[in-house]
Write a structure and sequence with these properties.
Among the domains are: 66 residues; 133 residues, Jelly Rolls; 146 residues, Heat Shock Protein 90. Helix content is 53%, strand content 17%. 23% of the residues are buried.
């Protein structure tokens, strides 16, 4: 499975997961309203404090009523007959009235149903909702509502009296609370995660000082959702009015713009583009599933689009706020994972380098010890050469000289490449092969300066060599062979490693190699994973082939 297919499958799986979570949360915030219809007021009279009376058309906007605080409004209507709307009446049918005025009187055919007087002139302090039962015998009666208004809010609320087919004092109120509480909880969790990412970076000495701005935006989103439902009861009136003002949505957008400016770099915009694609897929999946279910999410999206066409940009600002906050948070989390992986990669590279240095030191030490012993041996050999020269035995003299040349070659490591890292790695491999009686040949046609990180180059070569030597050491001594070649061709560094092995190979169902080592964790499987990671990092490739007794591994790295 290639990288593109894996990305697509991961995105689709993520979209399905998100859609499933949204569908589950929809259970707690039903979109279907229990409202059957709104009351159609047939007449309206206004009585001023001086006692004068005038009639108004209740179907005309109250803003054109020319009213004054303290005026008393008297609304009348006739309830529909039972035969026209039988589902509007019964033991679970109610007339819902919102109250936010100084004084209320509700009567049915002159029979008082409800009377209330509020001292506060603040409409929010006097908010309440009446649930008036509608038995079948009340059908066709005259409903009269009288209230004294203090401001425009006090007029609007009773005008939207409505019929309900069920008792919604518990379930519908709970669903309304969930519609705001669930997003608020999500933004609160997001705020905590952003601060966690920031403090982890601060502890590691790589703090991103733009993240507090993003966390503040998430916190403002928490306040917005909670404020819309019950902020009046828990927040100071000045703060409540500020959070509910038309200018407040501009503050998170401004903070997000500052965040984007602080992160104005190519990598960030590339990540934002990929994140936007993922979010678009997730959004489309959630919208499609919710549309089929008739859920609240799709309804809110449709309502936001309608408001946009009506010239209201508040919904657009809210969408941009939510999207950018979520996208930037996801990018910050991925960046933290990337930096954490980079730290561990550097640690692994350092461990590999230390291993190489240790092995090279051991090789140099053994060579030094061999040289010291050889000096003593050469004294005897030189004495023998002098004796053979005096005797005039050219054949014996030739054999002795050939033996000395061979010993000298063992003491002098070969020079494979001008690239120091490659040369040291190959010298170390040659020494290891001599100890394991493995015939080793190498060719490294590479420049002194390769545009590849030394840690990645060491990881690639060491893992290839380790696997090759491990396999070759299992073969009979006379058949042990390891070959490695490096060359640069058409902008790629090509590495080919061949070795004899003793079959059969252990492969999985997909043809992938399985380790034959007892310690399967961190053995050949881990080595192959590191090789693939390096080749993918440099947009290269890795593949292998084999015959019954010969294994070939090819890796390529694209050079910048």
């Amino acid at each position: 499975m290639n990288k593109t297919v894996r990305i697509i499958l991961c995105v689709l799986a993520f979209a399905i997961l998100c859609a499933g979570i949204v569908s589950f949360l929809e259970i707690f915030s039903p979109a279907e309203s229990p409202i059957l219809a709104y009351v159609d007021w047939s007449s309206c009279e206004v009585v001023s404090p001086s006692g004068s009376t005038r009639s108004l058309d209740p179907n005309v906007s109250f803003q054109n009523w020319n009213w004054s605080p303290g005026d008393t409004f008297r609304l009348r209507t006739t309830l529909p007959p039972l035969e026209d709307h039988p589902d509007w009446y019964g033991p679970t049918s109610y007339l819902l009235l919102d109250c936010a005025a100084l004084q209320y009187d509700v009567s049915l055919d002159g029979r008082p149903l409800f009377t209330a007087a509020f001292r506060s002139i603040d409409p929010f302090a006097s908010m309440c909702q009446l649930h008036i039962p509608l038995p079948e015998e009340d059908a066709g009666k005259t409903l009269e509502l009288t209230f004294t208004a203090s401001d425009a809010i006090a007029i609007q609320m009773p005008l939207v009296a409505r019929f309900s087919g069920e008792d919604v004092r518990s379930s519908f109120s709970a669903s309304l609370a969930c519609e705001d509480a669930l997003p608020a909880g999500a933004f609160a969790l997001e705020c905590v995660l952003i601060f966690a990412i920031f403090f982890v970076g601060l502890y590691a000495g790589q703090a991103d000082w733009s993240l507090p701005l993003l966390a503040i935006v998430a916190f403002l989103n928490v306040a917005t959702h909670l404020n819309s439902l019950s902020g009046y009861y828990f927040l100071p009136s000045g703060l409540y009015s500020f959070l509910f003002s038309d200018q407040f949505p501009l503050i998170p957008i401004a903070l997000l713009l500052v965040f984007l400016i602080l992160n104005n770099r190519r990598s960030f915009w590339r990540y934002l583009g990929w994140t936007s694609l993922i979010c678009a897929v997730v959004f489309a999946a959630c919208y499609g599933i919710d549309r089929m279910r008739g859920g609240n999410f799709a309804s809110n999206v449709d309502h936001s689009i309608e408001m946009l066409f009506l010239g209201s940009f508040r919904a657009v600002l809210s969408f941009l706020n939510v999207y950018l906050t979520a996208a930037c948070s996801l990018i910050a989390a991925c960046d933290m994972v990337r930096r954490t992986y980079a730290v561990y990669s550097r640690a692994d590279a350092l461990a590999l380098r230390n291993q190489l240095i240790t092995e090279q030191y051991q090789h140099i030490r053994e060579s030094a010890e061999g040289t010291s012993l050889m000096r003593h041996e050469w004294k005897n050999q030189l004495t023998s050469l002098h004796v053979l020269a005096r005797k005039g035995d050219p054949v014996a003299l030739e054999r002795a000289l050939t033996r000395l040349d061979s010993q000298l070659a063992e003491l002098s490591p070969g020079n494979y490449s001008d690239n120091i890292a490659v040369n040291v790695l190959l010298q170390n491999t040659a020494a290891r092969c001599r100890h394991q009686e493995i015939k080793f040949t190498a060719s490294a046609m590479v420049p002194a300066d390769l545009p590849v990180e030394e840690a990645d180059l060491c990881s690639l070569l060491l893992n290839l060599v380790d696997n090759a030597l491990e396999a070759a050491s299992q073969v009979e001594p006379e058949k042990r062979v390891v070959k490695i070649s490096l060359n640069v061709n058409q902008g790629y560094l090509a590495v080919k490693c061949e070795n004899a092995y003793k079959g059969p190979l252990s492969v999985d169902d997909k043809g992938g190699l399985l380790t034959t080592k007892q310690n399967r964790v961190g053995a050949a499987g881990m080595g192959l994973a590191q090789i693939r990671a390096v080749t993918e990092k440099y947009q290269g490739m890795f593949h292998f082939s084999y015959t019954p007794d010969w294994f070939t591994a090819n890796a390529s790295l694209r050079l910048p």
